[in-house]
Amino acid sequence: MWEVARRLRAASWVDLTHRFAPGQPSFPGDPDETVETVSTVDDGAWVQRFGLIGQWGTHVDAPAHFAAGGRTLAELPVRDTVLPLVVLPLADVAQRDVDLEVTAAHITAFETEHGRIPEGSFVALATGWSRRWDEPGDAMHNPDAAGVFHSPGWGVSALEVLAARGVVAVGHETCDCDPGVRVSAGDLRAQRWWLEHDGWMIESMRGLAAVPPTGAMIVATWPVPEVASGFPARAAAVF
Predict the structure, then answer these.
(1) Pfam families this protein is in (predicted)?
(2) Among 150, 212, 155, 146, which residue's Cα sits nearest to residue 178?
(3) Shortest CA distance to 60 belongs to which of 79, 49, 82, 76?
(4) What three-state secondary structure class fits 83?
(5) What is the pLDDT of residues 45-73, one digit of tens each?
(6) What phi, psi does 160 have (nearest 5°)?
(7) Given phi > 0 = left and psi -120 to 50 = alpha, else beta, which region is 207?
(8) Which residues pair with 202 in a beta bridge?
(9) Chain mean pLDDT for the chain
(10) pLDDT over 70 percentage in the chain
(11) For 130-149, what is each residue's pLDDT tens digit?
């Protein structure tokens, strides 16, 4: 395996993770992060206490987030933290249609050009939305004058195809799995479907524009509380 490690160090790496901090974009109504200094170097060591929800920043959602009795983070096998990575390049489409819902037709079109999505892979939706992360206001949710969100997301029909392919996990740049219009109405049908069918996901990803549609792999890690439905994650693409 040392030869594999040598090759990986020589490969291209792209960080897919936002740094998290108080005041960052988040799901509507979620409490903000708090940070407290417990001690400083002058006291002997710099120690901080963080107060945040599990679904904060770039984070992993386990099935238990929506599915009663579903797998928790501790029950996701460690071998699934390294997977083949497929990137659906739909940024141009999302720029034209901010309400884009990714459907089975989008998966079919991708496979026509790039080949069948492999079993045991991670499929990430690249919409270019992460460019909005540091913009002022609520650019990630992109609300209109009536407060209705306008952002792209997954449709159930696309996730059904991915599940049939044996895909392990999905990811996206938006704060939410579903298109914003549905999120505004409290309709999280796509996220619920995926988690209830034992998949897991990473939300609020970045850097996907720099990753090829096929041929890369994802390395995704997170802390493992005894019982948890989600936690901030560190993810990277390697190719």
Answers:
(1) Cyclase
(2) 155
(3) 76
(4) strand
(5) 999 999 999 999 999 999 999 999 999 99
(6) -60, -40
(7) left
(8) 60, 171
(9) 98
(10) 100
(11) 999 999 999 999 999 999 99
Phi, psi of 141 (to 5 degrees): -90, -20
59 three-state secondary structure: strand
How much is the pLDDT for 201?
A: 99
Q: What is the DSSP letter of 17?
A: B
Token code pair at residue 12: 């291209």
DSSP secondary structure letters along 196-233? HTT-EEEESB--GGGS-SSSEEEEEE----SS-SEEE-
CATH number of the domain residue 200 falls in? 3.50.30.50
The parent domain of residue 195 ranges over 2-238
Instruction: Please write down the long-range contacts of 47-51, taking CB distance under 8 Å and 24 or more positions apart.
Output: none
Angle formed at CA 73 by CA 70 and CA 78, multiple of 5 degrees: 115
β-bridge mates for residue 171, sequence order: 124, 202
Domain count, the chain: 1
Smallest CA-to-CA distance from 73 within 200, 212, 221, 229 is with 229
- As a whole number of angstroms, the distance between CA 54 and CA 63 comes to 13
User: Are 233 and 221 within 8 A, CB to CB?
Assistant: yes
What is the DSSP secondary structure assignment for residue 19, as one 8-state letter? P
Which tokens belong to 120? Answer: 């045991």
